[in-house]
Amino acid sequence: MQASALAATALVSLTGAGLVEAAERLRISLDTNPSHVRNEGVELFVEALRERVGDEMVIEVYPSAQLYRDRDVGRALRQGSVEMAVPGTWVLDGMVPAMALTSLPAFYGVPQEVTLDLIDGELGEAINAQAEERMRVKVLGPWMSLGMSHYYSTSRPLNAHDDLAGMRIRISGGTSNAKRVEDMGGVPNLIAWPDVPLALSTDVVDAVSSTHESIASAQLWDAGLRFAFEDNQWFGQYVPMVSQRFWDDLSPHLQEAMTQAWAEVIEETRRLADEAQLEAREKVAASGIAIVTATEEQLAAARTKLMSSQDGLASSIGIDQDLVDMALEELEERGYGD
Question: Please, what is the angle between helix 175-183 and helix 296-307, to 10°?
Answer without folding.
Answer: 110
